[in-house]
Structure formats: C-alpha cells, structure tokens
Amino acid sequence: MVKPSLPPLASSAKPLVLLTGFLGAGKTSLLREILDASAARSLSVDVILNDYENAELDAETLYERAATVAPIAASCACCSGLQPLVELTLAAASSRHDLVVVEVNGTADPTPLLETFTLLESRIPLQPRWQVGVIDARHFGHRGPFDSLEIAQLETASHVVIRHAETLSSPERQQLINALRRSNPQASLTSAFPLVEQLVDIQTHRRKLLLPSPQPAQRMAPLPSLGHPLAHAFTGCQILLPREVDPDPLRAFLRHLPLGVLRAKALVTLRSEPDRRKLFERVAADITPEPLDVPFSDRVPSSAICIGPDLDPLELLSLARPILGPDCQLPCSLVA
C-alpha cells in the first residue's frame, strides 16, 4: 500500500532536524536513511552539510537523494561555520521543500547552535527543531580526553540513534542505554523511519502552528560548555590523491594511518571502475568492509580527509606517497 504524501504546510514553518555526534558515529549514513525514508513519504529535503575539512566528499553521496545539498567546510560549526550555517538555514526556511536537515561536524558542540536558532526564532521559523544525537555503540565512553565533548553532544538531544548496536550483546546494549539515559533522560531512542513518521504525524495534525519540540528545556542564558573547548583541539587535513587508485593500496594507506587519526575518508576513482567513484571510510582503527558507491563527478578531486587532534599534514603526506604514489599532494602545495 502506498502511503499518502504529506499535506501542504498550514504555516510557513517547517521541521528542522539537527544531526550531531562524534567523528565517525554514523551521521551521514543516518542522513542517507532519513532521505530515503522521506522520499518514501514524498517529502523533499534541503540538506546543509558541515564537515571538518571538505564537506564536498560526503555531499557527493547525497545529491541524488536530496532536493538541495549545501556543503560547508568549517573547522567548527559553532564558531567559524556558524554564520554561513545560519545564512543557509535561513534560505532553506523559505524554500518550498518540506524539511531541513543539518548535519554538523563530529567535533562541534551543539549548544551554541541551539542557542542561536532560539535567538533567531523570529527570522528562522523552523518548528519543531529536533536535535538527533548519533551514538556509536562501539566507542561511546571510550574517547579518552574527548569523552566530555561526546557527552555535550548528547545532553541537549531530543532524540538518540544508536549505530552499530549489533556489535553488542543484549547486556552490553542495556548498559549503553542506561549510560545514555543518565546523560539525557528526556531523549527518545529512534531510527530514521520512525523519526520521519513522527514528522509526518506532526505535520498532518497541526493546523496553524507546528507542535513544540519535545527537546529538553533550553537554558535561559548561555552557560560555559565543557565540550566546546575540546572542539578546537582537532585538526583536519586533506590530501589530494592520484586520479585513479587501486583498492588494496588505498586500504593499506587507511590501515597505516596513526591512531591519532580518529576519522578518515577517501573519495576516489578505482582503476577497475573508471565510471564510478567510491567512498572509503575509517573510524578509529576500523575500515568499512565495502566502500560506498558514489555517482561519477569531477566536482571534487580524488581526496583523503583525516581528522584528529594535532595532526601533522606533512607526516600524513609522507605516509601516503610511498603507498599511493608521488602524485599525492597537499592542496596548498606546502611540499615542493
């Protein structure tokens, strides 16, 4: 049975979904699932994608799914990326599409974003405003000095999505849920399709105004966030790769990255498949078994993105060249 599409908005407001979570937690994968679920309900979605170094890599995986995709490359969505993010959100609020989804980079503290959207409520009429915290079941609570940043990303969430839960036993999963509830007892556990169905239900039953967001009460005045200073301890490094590569050397490069690289992505064209592009990913020491297919486009050059605390671009380049070839280089030509 085909589900009915969403009725026209009764007001100019539309929902905003803010995806937050630590590096490699699975935000972009969840975003793709939300887009697929939205398409099944005939919803059109404006996507704003903030990544630490080069948002175009993930944007390439979204263009066929979203109504619009606006990538922002900024080291901190709550600082250097805040102004462009607000401007793009303002534009999306006035579009004819049904939903706005913003994915912020994995080192961002969401508190300044939530405060800004609250202060600009009259200019950005997006309701409900939901923050979806994405949790990696394999690594939650094991971020070392960045545990407080991960908790800060969770504390203000209205919803929580647990990724990689299949790696846990039933007792381990319950322990994780208990830990999440201690940090944020108000948040609802969900996934992509139930989340979209909630939005459909809200929009179906409202008339003049959208229902208020079920998120925890916002602070009346900004308070210092323990997570925010840690967001600035990260560096991002882009390495331009040869136009075509082989998969085994690329996996070897990802495997040999230092442990300080918490998140790595590589968007490449394989010699064996010149008409497609592939997105390889590494989270902590785990490399995704199969790369993601990406439609061929020359908008973004073949590149690797590495994110972690105090990374040295020259060190990473010196690691890439023996494995992937001398054509590897830094975008700013720092190496002769």
UniProtKB/TrEMBL annotation:
Gene3D superfamilies (UniProt xref): P-loop containing nucleotide triphosphate hydrolases
Cellular component aspect of the GO annotation: cytoplasm
Stored SMART domains: CobW_C
Entry-linked Pfam families: cobW (PF02492), CobW_C (PF07683)
Stretches of the chain forming a coiled coil according to its record: none
InterPro entries, sorted: CobW-like_C, CobW/HypB/UreG_nucleotide-bd, P-loop_NTPase, Zinc-reg_GTPase_activator
Source organism, top-level taxon: Bacteria
Location of the CobW C-terminal domain: 234-324
Function field: Zinc chaperone that directly transfers zinc cofactor to target proteins, thereby activating them. Zinc is transferred from the CXCC motif in the GTPase domain to the zinc binding site in target proteins in a process requiring GTP hydrolysis.
The protein's name: G3E family GTPase
Organism expressing this protein natively: Haloferula luteola
Taxonomic classification: Bacteria, Pseudomonadati, Verrucomicrobiota, Verrucomicrobiia, Verrucomicrobiales
